[in-house]
Specification:
6 helices; mainly alpha; about 140 residues; elongated
């Protein structure tokens, strides 16, 4: 990803305190106090927290990109979707890595990874559809 787009993505991450390590630490502490830290629900909650944070960052990133298309030199829908795809890959890999590092058991990591695959795939499709609609509305 070009440095300019990395800067925009990093600024969005900073504004949203992403990745949300402090929030996950609090969630883990609360779950540990109830004896649920190793449960499937805990794995999903930790994964979801990182995933939602990444999605929030991506929504802001896309909004910024769409507001500044001419200034950023993005003249085609294909180039726009390519930049969004690169940002998606970057932020989701980071979020997945953070979630997996939080889970000490291999079985937990596999469950979290499958959850990430499912959710992130749907999210990217939804985001791409939304961008295509917005671009087509802007060009009309």
């Amino acid at each position: 990803m070009k440095p300019l787009y990395c800067d925009i993505l990093n600024a969005s991450k900073y504004r949203h305190k992403s990745p949300p390590h402090a929030l996950v630490d609090q969630i883990k502490s609360d779950l540990a106090s109830t004896g649920m830290l190793g449960s499937g629900a805990a794995i999903k909650l930790i994964s979801l927290t990182y995933c939602l944070s990444a999605e929030t960052v991506l929504y802001e990133f896309v909004a910024h990109i769409l507001r500044n298309l001419p200034d950023l030199g993005l003249t085609s829908q294909e180039s726009l979707l390519e930049v969004i795809g690169e940002a998606f890959t970057t932020i989701m890999a980071e979020a997945r890595g953070c979630a997996l590092r939080e889970l000490p058991i291999e079985e937990s990591r596999e469950l979290a990874s499958s959850y990430f695959n499912e959710r992130s795939g749907r999210f990217l499709e939804q985001l791409q559809r939304k961008v295509r609609l917005m671009v087509s509305e802007q060009s009309e």
